[in-house]
Amino acid sequence: MSVNIYDEANKLESALRQSDEYQTVKSQLEAVNNNEESKKVFAEFREIQMTLQEKQMSGQEITEEDIAKANELAGKIEQDENISKLMQAEQRMGQVIEDLNRIILKPLQDLYGQEENQ
């Protein structure tokens, strides 16, 4: 019996959207977006994150100014309860995704693990 793997993936996607972890991220993001100061700090944080990632990926040097700005924003984020809660929720969601990824990759790991043991 053949299984349509994409149908199963769509079911998993739907289950993720219904999970407590996803719902918590969603509500915490709404809390950030409904608070002007939190929204502003979070937007700045995402912007500096993207800038640093782009520089890193393209091999550009990350300057002392970049680091200072990131550290300043990190301090603001720690003091912002809305953003702190969002980041904690994102970490929990990230852990769920890591766990699912391990489960999804298990058949290949088992397959290649069998070859190594023969």
TrEMBL record:
<comment type="similarity">
    <text>Belongs to the UPF0342 family.</text>
</comment>
<dbReference type="InterPro" id="IPR023378">
    <property type="entry name" value="YheA/YmcA-like_dom_sf"/>
</dbReference>
<protein>
    <recommendedName>
        <fullName>UPF0342 protein ERX37_00310</fullName>
    </recommendedName>
</protein>
<dbReference type="Pfam" id="PF06133">
    <property type="entry name" value="Com_YlbF"/>
</dbReference>
<dbReference type="InterPro" id="IPR010368">
    <property type="entry name" value="Com_YlbF"/>
</dbReference>
